[in-house]
Amino acid sequence: VISFARWSVFATMCTGNFILLGRAIMQHVNDHAKLGDPFKGATMHAGFYAMVIMAWSCGAAAFQWSEYKFPGRGASILSIPFGSLMLLVEIALLASHSSAIDNQSGVVQNHLHSLTIVAYAPMFGFEWAACAAGRLATNTAAASGHILAISTLSVKRCTKGLTAAETVKIQMGLGILAGNLLGAILGALVFLLMPTGAHGALLPLGPVLAILFWLHDHLAKPLSWVKAVQRRHRTSKKSPREDLENTNAGVSDANAIDSDEDDDDADDDSDDDEEMCK
Fold it and tell me: pTM for the full model?
């Protein structure tokens, strides 16, 4: 909601941006076209939407490259610079905001402001590519896909029944849809209440996404030092009874070995006596 209110474009998805791109092309062809403009005539240029789509695509491609270079660690490594870029741009927007600009320098500043979306779009393209590759277990922004899955599985529940995994999938989809709706309401509320056009509202977004990817990668495949700590922790949690059982097992094994050696000696002595008798 905040990105749509700021820049009249979607930062998190491309479907809506392609629709806006087609609409902007037709608006450029016919300036008098009445297309039910939700922006009250203030449409952005078609090149602007194409640039945002390209930035989003670059983020998705960056994820694939990072996974190729750093298998299992690409998301956590590359999300840090992307998240830092979002944080720095949001700080710059908050610092440079002015309430009303009418002079020529203000026009230039408005153009620069509209281009800041290019710093946000790659992170969301990166997120979509990571989710499609299995990160975070599901897509966190595709409401259409979750609605389709819930509808399909609801029919299956009435006809054949659901497995435990399918039940979890429905619950996860409902949770994501509720989270998206709550986030949209919260974003609209923040934009209406903040006098600076919600500049600063997205400050935690980049770092939170970077931390989320880092936690996922390192919990799914811990580092060597994390594994060492886990092994030490498991060893320290062994009960005295387990230690006693292990000790007894070791003594039993030693006794069994001694018994085998005695049997071997007895067999050797028996062979020697038979030879002497002969």
Answer: 0.69
